[in-house]
Specification:
Order of helices and strands: HHHEHEEEHHEHHEEEHHH
Number of strands: 8
Largest sheet: 6 strands, antiparallel
Distance between the termini: 46 Å
Structural class: alpha+beta
Length: 350
């Protein structure tokens, strides 16, 4: 993600980090205690598994006349799986713990009287699905929901980890659908029909997606595809009275501010307009090892089993990521003056 410009609504990360240092120190002591406990548990699982494996191999070998030593591999594999699952659960609990402690503390320092909710209802995602900003999913969660107001616009922000699991004998487990931040920001008008504004991946997206309406703005159309959510037969002129040039410039500016996905170069953001809200999803993908992409967690707190903590460094990152919603609002048009309904668009053409 590109470096964000500063905003008066978000305090200086250095000063806020200094203010929150006692919380960081408390969490670090908790992390170290949990880390030692986890390693003791892993050691117990390892020795117990090894003992069961040796006993199984000896027993089977005695019964089979020395031909069953390989049966000891099964308990070892089972024990290894238990350790991996246990490590994942320790990490998930640690990430949730840090989020529930630090995010409300950061919110107290921000403009907008933000309300924090650790767990959000899965129905929060419905508008994003309706606007085809997120694909079909059947597993996952929405966490760290923030609600506030800035510059006269109410907003909501949350982190989602959404996956899909296919049914049937050939199912290969979960596949990622979306991991990142969800934003819903109040507008000053009623947009109907709704608009889905998604990255332009080329002719394949146009061929198999919803009907695309060009804006005529070459720079915008090269990056984004716009479709009405109800299949309305809008033309370019009508679309530009809904998605005005001011909004097109705002989305281009947001794309510049938020940056592109590494390696692929595609926009991080998907957007939508529906009724009195602007919707946006933001991918947190970053370059991993061997030129691969990984989805960074929110909050990114490092691994609980690591020798050295990264909480100090990661706190700065958390402050900037919470502040994204303020920077987005600052770049939206000051006034929304598009027609408020399909009937208004039709009346303008009479």
């Amino acid at each position: 993600m590109t470096e964000q410009t500063t905003t008066s609504a978000v305090p200086d990360p250095e000063r806020l980090a200094e203010h929150l240092q006692p919380k960081i120190d408390e969490l670090e002591r908790e992390r170290e205690a949990t880390r030692r406990s986890a390693f003791r548990w892993f050691a117990f699982l390892g020795f117990a598994t090894l003992g069961v494996a040796i006993a199984a191999a000896v027993f089977v070998a005695m019964q089979a006349g020395g031909a069953g030593a390989g049966f000891g591999v099964m308990p070892l594999a089972f024990g290894g799986a238990l350790i991996v699952i246990s490590a994942y659960r320790h990490q998930t609990r640690w990430s949730d713990r840090v989020g529930r402690v630090l995010i409300p503390e950061v919110c107290k320092a921000l403009d907008g009287d933000i309300k924090y909710q650790a767990e959000a209802d899965r129905s929060f995602v419905k508008p994003y699905n309706a606007l085809e900003m997120i694909g079909p999913w059947n597993r996952g969660w929405v966490k760290h929901l923030l609600r506030g107001e800035y510059r006269g616009r109410r907003f909501e922000m949350a982190h989602a980890d959404l996956r899909a699991r296919s049914s049937g004998k050939n199912s290969s487990g979960d596949s990622d659908v979306f991991k990142g931040l969800l934003f819903r920001i109040q507008t000053q008008a009623n947009s109907e029909p709704g608009l889905s504004i998604r990255p332009n991946f080329g002719w394949l997206t146009k061929a198999f997606g919803k009907r695309v309406i060009p804006t005529g703005n070459k720079e915008f159309d090269a990056l984004f595809l716009v479709s009405p959510d109800d299949g309305s037969a809008l033309d370019t002129e009508q679309l530009n009275r809904v998605l005005t040039p001011d909004w097109q410039r705002a989305l281009l500016a947001l794309n510049e501010t938020l940056g592109t996905v590494p390696i692929t170069g595609e926009p991080r953001l998907h957007a939508g307009l529906k009724y009195d809200a602007f919707y946006m999803t933001l991918s947190l993908k970053e370059r991993g090892r061997f030129r691969t992409l990984r989805s960074r967690p929110f909050p990114d707190v490092g691994h609980i089993l690591a020798t050295e903590s990264s909480l100090d460094r990661d706190l700065h990152k958390l402050i900037k990521e919470i502040g994204i919603v303020y920077r987005v609002i600052e770049q939206l048009p000051d006034s929304d003056h598009w027609p408020s309904s399909q009937s208004e668009l039709e009346n303008e053409n009479m």
